[in-house]
Write a structure and sequence with these properties.
The structure holds 2 protein chains of 2 kinds. Chain A is an all-alpha fold. Chain A contains 12 helices and no strands. By secondary structure, chain B is mostly helical. The interface between A and B is large, with 42 and 49 residues. Chain B: Its main location: membrane.
């Protein structure tokens, strides 16, 4: 790419330009994509709102104020209060912390398992490859939502402490999602391992572990970033769906999904939309923003895929 | 081709064994069983033990797995504990209710996606294209339960245009036609949500494939011949853009028969997804396991189908 920047005859006079690094080029391409930038702004805003916002709230989530229960939005309570007189805005921000964290950590788990197994399969091939890819096939064909529901029910039955449930949830969502990432990484490694720089590592006598983790996997990062971003969106939806069904994050820990369970009560559903519409909107806005970013990243990091 | 299909079918076998072991192991982790879930206080411990023996719940998990897997091979998924009927019968009773909404939403989403995709490709980078892109992202990001609740709130409760849930108006007696119209009336909201959910990614797919086709030489030739733009787009271009899309049909298979678990719960639609959700909370193992296996088989067969269709649609692809 950089070779074409200056025509040959002007080479002597033209100021010498450092060729841009691939990452810088990617950032430039990303920032040209208006929708993706909007998505990024929204996500930054959501994170600030959820992680810094509660510090500015005059209310305490543990305070129950029975006199102020079920109030509609007003200047005192911007988004109203629930049946225990808790401020919905504050609860929503705290719920966001949980939902965003679950999404991110689940993604990290899926990426960790997926890229390691994918790299092993692509690097060692033969029976390792067959074994790992057959396992991936199994996980691909597993109906995710039903399995999540069954596992969520198990968590409820085992009487897992509500404050520790989110950790289990992260692991469950992450573990169920490794297969597609591992396929992606394996495909990349299969082509990468035939390239010349790998012959160089061979000549240097590097150990396999170093070859895989220092030389092969870093080259798959661009593609993994894209699917990891989209995975976060999916994980947030899965978590909220489970929490809505009452088997994900359970009260008193708030999550966007379990705040929507207020809609299961017909009176709250009909007369007090401020209880469940704001958290639902948060899910929608966050997921749209993440998807926009993911799409922008795809165009920016993977020019070959450019349509 | 025949060889390819046979080999793929054989490959399904170990995958299916893996899936069945995994699913069974997960369900064996569930503490409590159907007897405790029914929670009948008048039942004595003796009676409960007796019932467990009848249902075979007292045996160790490994033994239960082999009995279950063996029966499954003979096509016997056992009896649903909750419905007291064979699992296959219960599935047969409810699967069609799910199929109807899934089928209609499939139809609508394809029609909408084709038009949206074609126009957004034809007018690439225009305002229309941008609006469609935004709409696509919105659809791809919808949490189904939230959007379902919103529609019920506004269109069913506040405006009263549609029924709140269910499939029929209870106690209604009318001609067959009236009853059909009643069902259609109840179907509108759930079908709308399902359609929205699947239209997004489909539209994207059609847009991409249309953009690819539009740039080809034969399209320029068609224009140079002086054909009307509409003929060029809808007759010459669309045909080739649609061809690869038939592979998507295979992936729709599990969705058509698998039911939409959360949506059916919200719209109180008597579909197989809702029965499934119930079976999980009631510890109705035979149904829970049987249906999970059923969806997995559909997924695998669907994948195979789409690969085969790909070869049929595009002879340049050699299946090996």
């Amino acid at each position: 790419m950089s070779a074409e920047t200056a025509p040959l005859e002007t080479n002597l006079t033209a100021p010498k330009r450092q060729p841009d690094s691939p990452w810088r080029m990617a950032i430039r391409r990303f920032s040209k994509n208006r929708l993706a930038v909007i998505g990024l702004v929204i996500i930054v805003f959501m994170f600030m709102l959820c992680f810094i916002g509660p510090l500015f709230s005059p209310y305490n989530v543990l305070d129950t104020n029975v006199q102020d229960k079920n109030l509609p939005p007003s200047s005192k309570y911007w988004l109203g209060t629930d049946k225990m007189g808790r401020d919905i805005l504050l609860r929503m921000m705290l719920a966001g912390r949980i939902s965003l964290t679950v999404g991110l950590v689940a993604m990290a788990i899926a990426v960790l398992i997926g890229s390691t197994l994918g790299a092993l399969a692509g690097f060692y091939r033969r029976w390792v490859d067959t074994l790992i890819m057959r396992m991936a096939d199994i996980f691909m064909a597993l109906p995710t939502l039903p399995i999540l529901i069954i596992l969520g029910t198990i968590l409820s039955d085992l009487k897992v402490d509500p404050s520790r449930r989110i950790y289990f949830l992260m692991v469950i969502i992450g573990v169920l999602g490794w297969s597609s990432i591992s396929r992606l990484v394996r495909g990349q490694i299969l082509t990468l391992r035939e390239q010349e720089f790998m012959q160089a590592t061979e000549a240097l006598g590097l150990r396999d572990r170093r070859k895989i983790f220092r030389h092969l996997l870093p080259n798959t990062i661009p593609i993994v970033i894209v699917s990891a971003t989209l995975f976060v969106a999916g994980a947030i939806i899965s978590e909220s769906a489970l929490s809505y069904l009452g088997i994900g994050v359970v009260p008193p820990t708030p999550s966007w999904g379990n705040m929507i369970t207020a809609a299961n009560n017909l009176i709250d559903f009909r007369k007090r939309p401020w209880l469940w519409i704001p958290p639902g909107t948060c899910i929608l806005v966050t997921v749209v923003a993440i998807n926009l970013i993911g799409d922008g990243l795809r165009d920016a990091l993977d020019p070959k895929m450019k349509k | 081709m025949k060889q390819y299909i046979i080999r793929r079918l054989l490959q399904i076998i170990p995958t299916m064994i893996g899936i069945s072991i995994l699913i069974f192991a997960i369900s064996a982790m569930v503490p409590g069983d159907y007897i405790t879930a029914v929670n009948n206080p008048t039942m004595s411990a003796e009676k409960a033990a007796q019932l467990r023996e009848i249902y075979g719940l007292d045996k160790p998990p490994v033994e239960r797995y082999f009995t279950w897997a063996g029966n499954m091979l003979k096509g016997n998924l056992g009896d649903s504990l909750q419905h007291k009927k064979p699992v296959t019968t219960v599935m047969g009773n409810y699967v069609w209710n799910s199929f109807f909404i899934a089928f209609f939403s499939l139809m609508f989403s394809w029609i909408i996606a084709i038009f949206a995709g074609v126009f957004s490709a034809k007018f690439q980078y225009s305002l229309l294209d941008k609006l469609i892109t935004l709409f696509v992202f919105l659809c791809m990001s919808l949490p189904s339960f939230f959007i379902g609740l919103l529609l019920i709130k506004f269109f069913a409760l506040d405006l009263g245009w549609f029924p709140v849930g269910g499939m029929t108006t209870s106690g209604m007696n009318g001609s067959t036609w009236e009853q059909l119209m009643d069902i259609a009336w109840h179907m509108i909201l759930p079908v709308t949500v399902l359609t929205m959910l699947s239209t997004g990614s489909l539209t994207r797919y059609f847009r991409t494939s249309m953009l690819e086709v539009i740039r080809q030489d034969y399209i320029r030739t068609a224009r140079a011949k002086g054909l009307k733009e509409r003929t060029v787009i809808f007759k010459h271009a669309l045909r080739n853009a649609l061809l690869p899309a038939i592979t998507l049909m295979g992936f729709e298979l599990p969705g058509l028969f698998g039911g939409a678990i959360i949506l059916e719960k919200i719209f109180i639609w008597p579909g197989v997804g809702q029965v499934y959700l119930e079976s999980i909370s009631m510890r109705d193992y035979p149904f829970m396991l049987g249906f999970t296996i059923f969806i997995s088989i559909l997924t695998l067969v669907g994948n195979l189908l789409s690969d085969v269709l790909y070869g049929v649609a595009d002879p340049r692809i050699r299946l090996k």
